[in-house]
Design brief:
Strand order of the largest sheet: 2-1-3-12-6
Largest sheet: 5 strands, mixed
Helix content: 40-55%
Number of helices: 19
Distance between the termini: 19 Å
Number of strands: 12
Structural class: alpha/beta
Strand content: 5-15%
């Protein structure tokens, strides 16, 4: 796996962008950060070519962390810059440390009505300084995946887990009576929890952890659950590790895991195919406000966006293809049905293919996501957001869960680490 330090060292050096020349005969080029998506985009290119004679698309697939590193090198050297890129929102911020390498799509989106037909919270994550720099492909709304058979065995109903306090209380009872752990989690959940509680990693003025007490409270609450063996970290520290699926999930070590729509559509089906029908979906537990009302029962995490590089000589053609992928009924359905993600394009939500019972979960994922969509809290975009996400994930969250650091110590060290650039580190 490519180290994050190397990725950020390369990307933070991207300050000069050189236009790359394409011949008229060359195909449109797209770099993507998911090998699974290659077949999808090649199929979309074939559909687009039926109405655009002679259209060709060359799709190059890289790994999730490899692609932004490759793109950073191309932008820094001015060599081999693609026309378009698919970039995950968790890496988007590292390309905002200077003049944007991506085309401003604000006016194009308005003319196409995509500024109103893509979910507003997803448009926000690819908008910086009032410029829309990418089009969101997925809703990426979080939910709780739970073992239906184990819930039935222990007489637990999903509706009983409205709040994280409920999770802690019922989880303790379950652990004491049966030695059963409730929840698996890792550091990627931290900023999701912050936004559920009305805060974020940054405020609009760029202040890091503007509500420090909220951050400490969240870490303490989940550290308490960890010490009680209610919420546990996977053996290898990540809920995205294939071994986590074949180990903790398949053996019933835990009953629940929080994840976005793409987590269930992609990773569950890929890494735990033998568990078809065993997992259900419910809203993410949350907290109650001072008024006694439930807070947002979801938030977003990660998710791909499509950008057009400033260096392209084929802006019109690139936009025409992006607009097609975003608005085409079949394109949106295919992305969901192929096990990738639930679309952010609102008109597609009327498509029965997206609302039908999902064959793996034996439940409609689409109906749950449509129910939760209006509750999605905003994300504050900041060039340092990727650094903040990965530092918490890799350095501090696990240390608090295992008791090596107190929440206060972790937040103090976290603040100090954020004062340094990845290159300096």
């Amino acid at each position: 796996m490519i180290s994050l330090n190397k990725i950020f060292l390369n990307l933070l050096c991207v300050t000069i962008f050189v236009h790359f020349s394409y011949s008229k005969e060359s195909p449109l080029t797209l770099w993507i950060s998911s090998f699974q998506d290659q077949v999808y985009y090649e199929k979309m290119a074939d559909l687009f070519a039926k109405k655009n004679k002679g259209f060709e698309l060359k799709v190059t697939a890289y790994g999730f962390r490899e692609m932004p590193d490759k793109l950073g090198v191309a932008l820094r050297t001015g060599q081999g810059i693609p026309d378009m890129v698919q970039l995950d929102e968790t890496f988007f911020g590292v390309f905002l440390n200077g003049p944007s390498p991506f085309l401003d799509l604000t006016e194009l989106a308005k003319k196409s009505n995509l500024d109103k037909t893509l979910h507003p919270r997803r448009l926000e994550v690819f908008t910086f300084k009032d410029k829309l720099l990418g089009l969101p492909q997925s809703l990426s709304a979080m939910m709780m995946y739970y073992r239906k058979d184990l819930f039935e065995e222990f007489n637990i109903k999903p509706a009983e887990l409205e709040t994280w306090e409920d999770v802690a209380r019922i989880g303790r009872e379950l652990q004491e009576a049966n030695g059963q752990r409730m929840l698996a989690l890792d550091g990627t959940l931290f900023d999701v929890l912050l936004r559920q509680k009305g805060s974020d990693l940054f405020d609009k003025k760029g202040n890091f952890l503007p509500d420090e007490n909220v951050a400490i409270e969240i870490l303490q609450e989940f550290a308490d659950m960890s010490q009680a063996q209610v919420a546990v970290m996977p053996d290898r520290g990540s809920i995205f590790d294939p071994v986590f699926f074949s180990g903790d999930l398949e053996t019933g070590e835990v009953m629940c895991v929080a994840g976005a729509d793409w987590y269930g559509l992609d990773l569950f089906q890929q890494f735990a195919p033998g568990m078809e029908g065993m997992w259900g979906m419910m809203p993410l537990p949350t907290w109650k406000g001072k008024d006694g009302k439930l807070g947002p029962r979801t938030a977003t995490f990660a998710g791909q966006g499509l950008m057009i590089c400033q260096a392209t000589q084929k802006k019109d053609l690139a936009w025409a293809f992006l607009e097609f992928v975003m608005k085409n009924k079949e394109a949106n359905a295919e992305r969901f049905l192929q096990g990738n993600s639930f679309p952010a394009y609102l008109p597609s939500w009327k498509n029965e293919d997206l609302l039908n019972e999902h064959p793996y979960f034996k439940q409609s994922m689409g109906k749950l996501l449509v129910e939760l969509a209006d509750e999605i809290p905003p994300v504050v975009v900041d060039p340092r957001r990727p650094q903040a996400i990965f530092l918490m994930q890799e350095n501090y969250f696990g240390s608090v869960m295992f008791g090596a650091l107190s929440p206060e110590e972790a937040i103090s060290q976290y603040r100090e680490a954020m004062k340094q650039s990845w290159g300096n580190r």
